[in-house]
Amino acid sequence: RDVDQDVLCLCYTETHDYLVAGLTDGTVKLFKVSSDVDVLTLRDTEIMQKPSPTTAIKHRPVQKSHPIKRTVTATYANGCVKCWHYPSSQCLYTIREKRQTLGLAYHSHLPKFVTTGDDAKIYLYDEETKTQERVFHASESVEVMDGHKSRVFCACFNPKSAHELISGGWDNTIQFWDTRQPYALRRISGVHMCGDGLDITKNGKEILSCAWQRQNPIQLWDYGSGKLLVSLEPDGHSSLLYCGKYVTSMFLACGGMDVNIFRVVDLRSHATLGMIRNLNGGVYSMDIGPVNPKHAKKTKTATVVPQIAFCAGRRIFEIDAQP
User: Which residues pair with 244 in a beta bridge?
Assistant: First the structure.
């Protein structure tokens, strides 16, 4: 589907009935899944008077203990963090950070989220009280690098921990944090992140990094030790990567620019399962959707690839890639 301006970030809603797209002027549009029609526009007076690019958009992970609230949270380059109730097109609350806010990540099972930005810091919020609980940052020590030194573009909570998360950015490090401490505990070096390119397996044991670099852009790391497990070269096409996620335990997906490419990679063979090249823009964002009903009856559910959405330039794509 085509949009009237560049799409910078996107996500599915909790029930996978809409795709939510954040645009360059701060407008957030909702599209009915499997339709070209944009049915809702989210934009308040603040965004209309002072347009600012949408930098990330997410919803709280669906849990049995967490009722579906039909909300999405967006971050903006002007420092705003806005939670939208999309059926009513109402902004429920706004947090105003004094920085460029660049990324957003939700805790996997607690009502908390973090934002990242251009001040090298990570802010932790309680979603229910809408208060900032902690700021993660480097100490003043010149002997240890216990935090970021430049822009932070992404963060990811460990799904098996109540307190642990990782982050990445321009300073070529992945930092490991504990929400009870302000400084990073350890780091991985040599990974240049420019988008939402970090993910952790559901068992909490492996990290995926999809980096904006020519050498070894796709790497898997051991979470516990921080040691490199493997650098993947799934095909002969080089790309500077912005985004990447585990799709299932057997597949990952990633996208980037120069070459503008989106691909799904088989983690067993380390080969590309499917790829779209020479898109009209870089792939800045992607999200994992529902399993297509026609594939849902397969006996080996781990081999079924859910639908995936991604954006490139002014277009939003939904793909169904099956082995």
Answer: 254
